[in-house]
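Bug #77: duplicate submission created two jobs. Keeping one. Sequence:
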Amino acid sequence: MADSIVTSKTPAKETLLTPRFYTTDFDEMANLDVSSNIEEVEAILEEFRRDYNQRHFIRDKEFSESWVKLPEQTRALFIEFLERSCTAEFSGFLLYKELSRNLKNQNPLLAEGFALMSRDEARHAGFLNKAMSDFNLILDLGFLTKSRKYTFFAPKFILYATYLSEKIGYWRYITIYRHLERAQKDRIYPIFRFFESWCQDENRHGDFFAAVLKSQPELLTGWKSKLWCRFFLLSVFATMYLNDAERSGFYQAIGLDARKFDQYVIRKTNQSSQKLFPVILDVDHPQFFQSLDLCAETNLELAKLEKSNSFADKLKKLSLQFTLVSTLVNLYFLPPIQTETTWTTVY
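Kept job's structure:
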């Protein structure tokens, strides 16, 4: 592979389910006062400064093997996994880097936290992109920076969403790592060996956002916060569930059932959120995963009709879209589990 030509991969088409790039109100973020929880924020920053994974992302001789031996379909699925993962990590790097740069003078404490997290995300993205070169491909991250549309999120939404994305990232990485530790025959590529320490970065990042959220009591108390917590929990869970249903072949290639994997990760992330959010979702309600399964099936049917412009198929698309949206709305209004007493007691 050393003599092979590495070509720039055309970025995947953007959809509602692809990793997105975000921006926010930097002045509002700079004005966040974290003094009410300063000790916890400082403690997490000290964890960041120790940089436990400074020497972790080093490729060894196992990476030099030729991966041509992988079946063509498995190669395609794995390349897509690398691309989506790299794009998501790079999106985090860009957001944290911009936050650090814009907050440096007004809020140096938060600026340092974002700078150190951007360091971690850059390592993750670079490691994933280097892995793509083993398949003679590479993502032009500079092109992505300029070409991708940026979605504006208010600071409070950034806090909710990034807390959950980092925590669910932890549970995804550690679950895959533990599975492949037991079933090494399914470890089709050496990058999975790095997931145990890697996911600890995600966990620490989530803890940082949790500490900032706890310094803003209005984001974790009252009826509005309950609505937003439910919204972001469902959004993150449903996005993962629909995405992974489309890529069940990848999970099958590493010996996992995508549906069972997602349900385990959702349960664990929901439990983690119980330590912070005033409400969590009732994922054990009989309708919860039944509804997510219906959403996943509906989304797969929509994908089959994506390129069709016939009148009949357009009508079918509308019907499927209505089913998808209405099912998600019904999921949102399932009675949640109240956790305020637990949160007050712990924190």
